[in-house]
Amino acid sequence: MNATKLREKVEKSGLTVEELATRIGIDPSTYYRKMNADGENFTVAQAKKMATVLGLTNDEASEIFLA
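The chain above was modelled as a monomer; its predicted structure follows.
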């Protein structure tokens, strides 16, 4: 996973990390912990929810979550 690109997309979305975490159904502290592990512990379902919430194209989601 490309955590740097995910951080960039979150920043550009205008959402806070807390808002994103809530929208994908996890506690913000869990989100931070997963990001500190370079995003390796996000589930497929969480990645799909993030892609939807952030409005990512299939190509953008692939660049972030399949890197």
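The chain has a mean pLDDT of 94.
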